[in-house]
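PT: before anyone asks, these are the final sequences, not the draft ones from last week. 544 residues across everything. Please model them as a single complex and drop the result in this thread when it's through.
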Amino acid sequence: MKNWRRIERITVITKILLEKPNLLLSMNIFTDFFQVAKSTISEDISIIKNVFQRLGYGKIQTQTGAGGGVLFSPGVSPQKKAEFLQSIADRLSDPSRILTGGFLYLTDLVFDVQVADMVGKIFAEHFGALSPQYVVTIETKGIPLAMMTAKYLNIPLVIVRDGGRVTEGSAVSLNYVTGSSRHIRTMSLSRRALPTDSKVIIIDDFMKAGGTAKGMSELLTEFKAEVLGIGVLIDTEIPEQKLVKNYTALLKLSKVDESKREIIIYPQNGEV
Amino acid sequence: MKNWRRIERITVITKILLEKPNLLLSMNIFTDFFQVAKSTISEDISIIKNVFQRLGYGKIQTQTGAGGGVLFSPGVSPQKKAEFLQSIADRLSDPSRILTGGFLYLTDLVFDVQVADMVGKIFAEHFGALSPQYVVTIETKGIPLAMMTAKYLNIPLVIVRDGGRVTEGSAVSLNYVTGSSRHIRTMSLSRRALPTDSKVIIIDDFMKAGGTAKGMSELLTEFKAEVLGIGVLIDTEIPEQKLVKNYTALLKLSKVDESKREIIIYPQNGEV
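LR: through. Structure below.
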């Protein structure tokens, strides 16, 4: 294999770091592949590191020594984050999103992969320092956001089923009361989906009273899991008292007025 | 802002191309940002292009002229693809995956974001030339694979709901018979989730007789959608005759023997 120029190595290393976020990569991967000394690779990485730092792309950490390696933790610059959250608020303020009953049509947004990708990156950066082992969500609308968070944290996704129908061996089910509409519902999680004593974060799209998040937390105690944090894309101003504490919301929904066809929603830039 | 060296520009351009797959990016984005001539950016891109080509990372196409731009279509080298599919077959051959009734436990695998990411890349490369406008799947297990396919194709994801409960305005529902277990089930899709006359691909995790895929195809005719192709991670050897034609499966499940605790599954490398 011909010699690689620095500029070519940089292209390859940048790609690998971006595709393996939050994974400690041994320097040997690169020295073996390019057939160069570790010091050469270290210089390559330091160039990438400076660019990433300058543009707020996230943190690159290097560890020296025999077990040395490089780890990339994705990030979003405060400016990009603010622009992104404002663009989401703008999209959600469109009155055609008001559904019967004063609900807000969110599906296209949470299933928009560019949106889910950015939300995942923001939550991964926010919760990364807590070193969670699993991301937990409940089907269906929370899945894309939770999945992208899991991708950027490089940890598995665990999906609680809505209802009691689980065909995957023994499962734990929980009846819970939705906080806002006071309906009784069931959620279930297969025993083999989550090892006991795991550290987890919960990610979901929307929180009104917090009944679903509280239900998930209770279900998770059956797995002796520790919930390190809860992240939702949107929470509501009312009710002010939620059934769970210590959660992070990226946007706050202040009002959906069905008769006046008005939606008020704004970014919570201080939260993340 | 200080001058950027080529090596630094390459880092930034590589990152942007990787994060915006299948999106035509104007050269002006780069000339404005770096304050350099278009010819300089073209040279930068040609370096990245050669590296990507050499390592099978996908195709970079450039268009010249006033509306000129650059477009990156991700790809996976045949060797990586074969290694990946073999690793999935190996993971799935573990007898502890056999569930009562001869089903196979797949959940951890399809919710493994590294797996979903690779499957998405493979399907995006396979179906990209057909220029689909939407990726359609049905909840729940198909979602991660469909989502990553949508991400790499840079098109939206549309999720058919399992059951009749849709709270998102008017919806079309369809009762269908699952091909293998002959149960009657319902699937629904919100009217606002998909514009009429769209070109779509269907992505799912598993196909036995093809009843679900056939149901989705029928439901989509209500939206006057054209189904350009169907991709599933795994299909089964039996029944040989499926209810849908023209689908692509990455792996074939030959046998799940509950009493002998044996699973036979192998990659279909010729398919993609």
